């Protein structure tokens, strides 16, 4: 498994549960090498089902935040248009911090940290696939699964397709200790998220655990929109970024703009996608899952799909060796290849549907007509 994100770790955890050996190759030098990201809502029929297959659903339910499903929508003047709150027993899409989910999935999984993969050479019917590493060495595996994200190094082994820019970019910032330092913003956000939609732009703030809030300014812009600030936005002066964003959202309600004013640092996250119908011809010894296979707009489906795909692929591998003793899990590569091909067909069908849904959803959420975003929310809730 190349990639130690939710999909890769779920794959490894399910195989580990059934006594099958698997190595996770992760380029990060350690679990805490960089911030794990924001919060995820895990759907009952997707991410939660994957955790059930991994034997982790009960632990997830202890860690998750069902109240985080709450959603408040405002107009740019600050008027509340919708204030949706889940029922106490609503467990359809509870939230969990990415870091908590990672630690839950890690368990005793064998992760080889600091292993940067540069490419994969497909195998043939007589052998596995060769993985090339940044330090120059190579290793051969029966099966290499690329779950290494949008800019996957494994993808080139099966497909020449690369992600393309959607025309929509996101600038992310954070607020810490919001309940004590910014109680007025805590009330604005509520227990879950608050979203404000304008013409071709939006601001969304989402609670994480521990009083931490992620804020996302989303807008249509050319990919190089920030060059006046800095060739690389990561090197730009935070005050300059803040001023640019406040100008972009000029005229919006002061409490909404405070979500940007109080952000200490900013990250540039342009939105890329793969074609909704992305597939590839059979390649022995190599496959993909998650964003590596079907990168789509970040509207709640990506991690859920990756986790379920990881669990399903692991189960498919287990089924090919159902009669094997746990201490001798050798399976013929031909049987393994057939199981992978069948998995890919199921993955493509489901991911294609979600890619169409999320692509259309992004267009409505960042639209010239802000009422489209409200209509999108109403349809999802119904």
TrEMBL record:
Its cofactor is FAD. The keyword Protein biosynthesis does not apply. It comes from the Bacteria. Its main location: cytoplasm. It catalyses: a tetracycline + NADPH + O2 + H(+) = an 11a-hydroxytetracycline + NADP(+) + H2O. It is found in: Cytoplasm. InterPro entries: FAD-bd (IPR002938), FAD/NAD-bd_sf (IPR036188), TetX_monooxygenase (IPR043683). It holds the Pfam family FAD_binding_3. Gene3D superfamilies: FAD/NAD(P)-binding domain. Residues 2-181 form the FAD-binding domain. Keywords: Cytoplasm, FAD, Flavoprotein, Monooxygenase, NADP, Nucleotide-binding, Oxidoreductase. FAD binds at residues 41, 98, 291. Its EC number is 1.14.13.-. NADPH binds at residue 34. The keyword Lipoprotein does not apply. Monomer. An FAD-requiring monooxygenase active on some tetracycline antibiotic derivatives, which leads to their inactivation. Hydroxylates carbon 11a of tetracycline and some analogs. Belongs to the aromatic-ring hydroxylase family. TetX subfamily. Consists of an N-terminal FAD-binding domain with a Rossman fold and a C-terminal substrate-binding domain. This is Flavin-dependent monooxygenase. It comes from Catenulispora yoronensis.
């Amino acid at each position: 498994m190349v990639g130690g994100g939710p999909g890769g770790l779920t794959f490894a955890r399910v195989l580990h549960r059934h006594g099958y050996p698997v190595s996770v190759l992760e380029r990060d030098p350690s679990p805490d090498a960089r911030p794990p990201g924001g919060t995820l809502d895990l759907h009952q029929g997707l991410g939660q089902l994957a955790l059930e297959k991994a034997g982790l659903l009960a632990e997830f339910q202890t860690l998750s935040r069902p109240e985080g499903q709450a959603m408040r929508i405002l107009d740019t003047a600050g008027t509340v248009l919708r204030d949706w709150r889940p029922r106490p027993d609503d467990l359809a899409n509870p939230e969990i911090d990415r870091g908590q989910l990672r630690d839950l999935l890690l368990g005793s999984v064998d992760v080889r940290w600091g292993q940067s993969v540069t490419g994969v050479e497909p195998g043939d019917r007589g052998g596995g696939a060769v993985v090339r590493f940044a330090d120059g060495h190579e290793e051969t595996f029966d099966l290499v699964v690329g779950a290494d994200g949008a800019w996957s190094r494994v993808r080139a082994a099966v497909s020449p397709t690369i992600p393309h820019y959607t025309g929509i970019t996101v600038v992310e910032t954070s607020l810490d200790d919001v309940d004590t330092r910014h109680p007025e913003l805590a009330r604005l956000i509520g227990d879950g998220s608050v979203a404000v939609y304008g013409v071709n732009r939006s601001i969304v703030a989402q609670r994480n655990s521990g009083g931490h809030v992620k804020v996302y300014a989303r807008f249509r812009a050319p990919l190089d929109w920030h060059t006046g600030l800095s060739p690389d936005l990561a090197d730009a002066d935070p005050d300059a970024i803040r001023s640019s964003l406040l100008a972009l959202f000029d005229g919006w309600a002061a409490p909404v703009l405070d979500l940007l004013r109080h952000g200490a640092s900013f990250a540039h996250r342009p939105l890329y996608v793969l074609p909704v119908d992305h597939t590839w011809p059979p390649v022995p010894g190599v496959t993909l899952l998650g964003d590596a296979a079907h990168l789509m707009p970040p509207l709640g489906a990506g991690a859920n799909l990756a986790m379920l795909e990881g669990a399903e692929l692991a189960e498919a591998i287990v089924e090919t060796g159902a009669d094997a003793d746990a201490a001798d899990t050798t399976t013929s590569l031909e049987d393994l290849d057939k199981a992978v091909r069948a998995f890919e067909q199921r993955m493509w069908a489901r991911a294609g549907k979600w890619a169409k849904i999320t692509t259309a959803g992004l267009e409505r959420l960042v639209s010239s007509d802000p009422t489209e975003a409200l209509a999108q929310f109403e349809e999802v809730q119904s």
